[in-house]
């Protein structure tokens, strides 16, 4: 069931208790976790933090920690699955779920008390009516107890109605679950709760802004959602800004947030202008900056003239947007997008052979205002990741390795190939996939190119590979049908995924199953 009064029906229940905190490996989830950590420490609420990568990880971790507490909080995980069926908890365990992944599982929606979804139901979900998808248990028992030797006209009519109801239910559930998409950022939902509790501060606001910006950078939501959230965030910023925040006098310990129009160029305050232009998806795709020779005529003018020319001549108004900046003392300001790319690099980019769990903790720690060295390290890692992306795009285009399989495009990176370790996890692989699709669409002479989705696959070890799908570049609303397609393809060839990620458009399977998995996808999507 949905819980709209988060203060009374959620936080006052868990305050001071022991909570198991399951957190997905994404930036919005990490920001939400940081907000909860701040709140829990202030209220002496004991918590056990458990990062989880996918469904299998969640099930194993719950079995390990289930005896510790009866309150379980899931952040960006668990909302799209029947959590009670999967985890088989005791009757006294209560699950609180804040999850931006959609659609929400109907069993969670209509749970009477054990599963509580934080926030309001979003209209875009179009949740089915209860009576259309659940049948009364007494009616079901009557149907099961019918005597086959004594079939009457009345019973035949009942069976006919039951069959019609089941057909309608199957159609409704298919329409409800065929696309995966994203709702409001979880960090914003929880920041709003802090506001109602009168417990918000400038740090929590910054973390919520990063969570929203992550959705925008990864193109998980329509641009209008980001724009609609801006005025409210700006009001919070005005309210929470201290006199020192607004003062023109600054010292080395000042911590300020500001909102302003800015350039949507990746890491441009921490990189050269040329590098930033070359590694920003919109400019790289529209200006075809995948080769050095293509860049020369564009970059010889001064910066302002260049930006004006680009925006007017190349339909790149998206280069200017309203953003938020954080400044500490006299250091170079950090745009919210800088934090997003840096945290993705800390989380996913496996340069030093550290574990994914280590990356999670490092990304979480980078949000502390006194840990800018970590975020600076993340920015350097992000630069390496973006350089690798451009290199991979050039290689894939030059070698004609972006293959058309009829209903979709795909490319694969094998284990041991240059930079493959950079893209072993969903967030970093999704960025690579978007760059590849943008480049292919801008270069291809195929008129259907912009209408084709893309599947990216990377071998993560000798035996396993991750597969991720993104919608066509022409898709105005970021809805993804690959989650359902991956599920059906796995069933068709009779395999069990190694990891079912909480974003269902990504899956990890045994590498030797990849060819027949792709064949099954081509059959299903034709």
TrEMBL record:
<comment type="similarity">
    <text>Belongs to the CDC45 family.</text>
</comment>
<protein>
    <submittedName>
        <fullName>Uncharacterized protein</fullName>
    </submittedName>
</protein>
<dbReference type="GO" id="GO:0031261">
    <property type="term" value="C:DNA replication preinitiation complex"/>
</dbReference>
<dbReference type="GO" id="GO:0003682">
    <property type="term" value="F:chromatin binding"/>
</dbReference>
<dbReference type="GO" id="GO:0003697">
    <property type="term" value="F:single-stranded DNA binding"/>
</dbReference>
<dbReference type="GO" id="GO:1902977">
    <property type="term" value="P:mitotic DNA replication preinitiation complex assembly"/>
</dbReference>
<dbReference type="Pfam" id="PF02724">
    <property type="entry name" value="CDC45"/>
</dbReference>
<dbReference type="InterPro" id="IPR003874">
    <property type="entry name" value="CDC45"/>
</dbReference>
<keyword id="KW-0131">Cell cycle</keyword>
<dbReference type="GO" id="GO:0006270">
    <property type="term" value="P:DNA replication initiation"/>
</dbReference>
<keyword id="KW-0235">DNA replication</keyword>
<keyword id="KW-0539">Nucleus</keyword>
<dbReference type="GO" id="GO:0000727">
    <property type="term" value="P:double-strand break repair via break-induced replication"/>
</dbReference>
<dbReference type="GO" id="GO:0003688">
    <property type="term" value="F:DNA replication origin binding"/>
</dbReference>
């Amino acid at each position: 069931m949905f819980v709209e009064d988060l203060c009374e029906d959620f936080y006052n229940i868990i305050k001071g208790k022991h909570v198991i905190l399951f957190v997905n490996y994404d930036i919005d989830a990490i920001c939400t976790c940081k907000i909860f950590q701040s709140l829990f420490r202030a209220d002496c609420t004991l918590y056990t933090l458990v990062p989880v990568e996918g469904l299998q990880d969640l099930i194993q971790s719950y079995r390990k920690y289930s005896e510790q507490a009866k309150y379980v909080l899931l952040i960006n995980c668990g909302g799209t699955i029947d959590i009670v069926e999967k985890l088989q908890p005791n009757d006294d365990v209560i699950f609180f779920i804040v999850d931006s992944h959609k659609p929400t599982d109907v069993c969670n929606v209509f749970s009477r008390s054990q599963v509580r979804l934080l926030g309001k139901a979003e209209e875009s979900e179009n949740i089915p009516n209860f009576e259309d998808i659940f049948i009364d248990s007494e009616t079901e028992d009557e149907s099961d107890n019918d005597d086959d030797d004594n079939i009457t006209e009345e019973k035949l009519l009942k069976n006919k109605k039951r069959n019609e109801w089941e057909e309608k239910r199957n159609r409704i559930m298919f329409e409800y679950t065929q696309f995966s998409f994203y709702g409001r950022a979880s960090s914003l939902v929880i920041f709003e709760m802090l506001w109602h509790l009168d417990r918000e501060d400038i740090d929590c606001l910054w973390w919520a802004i990063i969570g929203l910006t992550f959705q925008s950078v990864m193109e998980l939501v329509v641009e209008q959602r980001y724009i609609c959230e801006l005025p409210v965030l700006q009001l919070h910023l005005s309210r929470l800004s201290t006199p020192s925040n607004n003062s023109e006098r600054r010292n080395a310990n000042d911590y300020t947030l500001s909102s302003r129009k800015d350039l949507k160029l990746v890491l441009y305050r921490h990189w050269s202008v040329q590098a930033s232009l070359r590694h920003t998806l919109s400019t790289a795709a529209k200006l075809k900056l995948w080769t050095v020779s293509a860049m020369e005529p564009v970059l010889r003018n001064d910066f302002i003239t260049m930006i004006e020319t680009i925006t007017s001549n190349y339909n790149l108004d998206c280069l200017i947007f309203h953003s938020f900046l954080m400044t500490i003392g006299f250091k170079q300001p950090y745009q919210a997008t800088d934090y997003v790319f840096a945290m993705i690099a800390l989380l996913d980019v496996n340069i030093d052979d550290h574990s994914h769990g280590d990356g999670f903790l490092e990304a979480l720690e980078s949000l502390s205002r006194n840990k800018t060295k970590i975020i600076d390290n993340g920015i350097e890692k992000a630069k390496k990741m973006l350089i690798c992306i451009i290199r991979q795009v050039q290689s894939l285009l030059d070698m004609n390795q972006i293959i058309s399989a009829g209903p979709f495009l795909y490319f694969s990176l094998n284990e041991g190939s240059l930079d493959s370790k950079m893209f072993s996890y969903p967030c970093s692989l999704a960025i690579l996939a978007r760059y590849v699709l943008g480049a292919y669409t801008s270069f291809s002479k195929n008129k259907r190119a912009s209408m084709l989705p893309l599947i990216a696959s990377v071998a993560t070890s000798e035996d396993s590979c991750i597969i991720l799908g993104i919608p066509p570049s022409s898709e105005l609303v970021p809805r993804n049908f690959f989650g359902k397609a991956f599920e059906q393809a796995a069933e068709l060839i009779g395999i069990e995924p190694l990891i079912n990620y909480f974003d269902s458009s990504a899956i990890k399977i045994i590498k030797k199953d990849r060819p027949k998995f792709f064949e099954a996808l081509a059959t299903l999507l034709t």
